[in-house]
Amino acid sequence: MGNIVNVKSEIAPLKKVLLHRPGNELTNLVPDYLSEMLFDDIPWLAVAQREHDAFAQTFRNLGIEVVYLTDLVCESIKSDGIKQLLVNDFLAEAIVHSPSQTEYIREYLLSLPTRKMVETMIAGMRKNELNGSRTEHLVDYLNNQYPFLLDPMPNIYFQRDPFSIIGNGVAVSKMYTKQRSRETLFAKYIFSFHPDFCDTPKYYDRTLPYNIEGGDILILNQTTLAVGISQRTHANGIEKLAENLLNEESGFKQIVAIDIPKQRSFMHLDTVFTMIDYDTFSIHPNTQKSFATLILTKEGKRIKIEQRDGKIEDTLKSVLELDSVKLLKCGGDSSIDAAREQWNDGANTLAVAPGEVIVYGRNNVTNKLFEENGIIIHEIPCSELSRGRGGPRCMSMPIVRR
Predict the structure, then answer these.
(1) Which of 116, 141, 165, 297 lies at 20 to 30 Å from 275 by C-alpha?
(2) pTM of the predicted model as reported, rounded to 2 decimal places
(3) How many domains, the chain?
(4) Which of 118, 254, 97 has its CA nearest to residue 189?
(5) pLDDT-above-90 percentage for the chain
(6) 394 counts as catalytic
(7) Of the listed 74, 330, 382, 394, which one is catalytic?
């Protein structure tokens, strides 16, 4: 029994991080179903894996421990009973069009070694992978053009979203899309059964009614969270998180809710705004407009909400008690460079220490701006990883920061 998580800042020196190395789920992306899978393009798996390995090696070169999702899930399945529970929960949420197919898939998954079973859940199952697929119901005949028995989970290499480590606890996400909802099942089992994580306090649960995703949650310091009210995180979800989180035991005292546009280009708060140093942030130029910010605090059991007017930098100076903050614009002062590099997640930095970040190498204008402002950058290759529309922060979940 244990709890080893500790993340009380976006910028404190990173000691342990969770990743998912892309697998065959990317080979199950096809043009006809890209939009349903939340992709705009199809990454080349072999190159994406090489790029992801370079990402992982960057952490290791800095003395940061890397752990992988599949390993943690397998270490959580300590009995046949837990394995059966996971398969049942998974199939209850999977898009399977026939009862006969569901039972067939259940039998097949349970027959596999644990690691192969988890990899198959993530990769999805093509109809031609299994012999003897049953056609017992009318719906089996009507859906015979659809190529999958189980849909793949190609977005899972973005490990920021299914859950969030906050302080010494975790918020397990309620995902916005049905396509991604199964990803949080793995978090459920890790934080229920893994010996290192099963005692972790839970501040949000995947069964709650309102969406909240990890890409919208930034830990500004030991007492303050910023959370985006976005396309994928509902205001009611943030208020519920505040009810559960803001207390003496957690140490968190306030949540800064930032209302960002509800559109794909502003998918999560961290696609337009990340923390680089104590007083320095990367930002999409359009985010400097006066988006509504609201401060949530707790008085007894009641959530108190205060609206703040003005620019985001004014709110940051106030809540972080700083005389000034520095906002480094993705793409600099060029609207063309900003649009292009924001498309490739130029603002989505991952701090490994104060003033030291991992970035995509392709965003040369933004990266040069960081260096000119004294930021240490570690560039990673990303020709294929960037096709999923997420950057280094999106692909990683810090477990321990010093």
Answers:
(1) 297
(2) 0.94
(3) 1
(4) 118
(5) 75
(6) yes
(7) 394
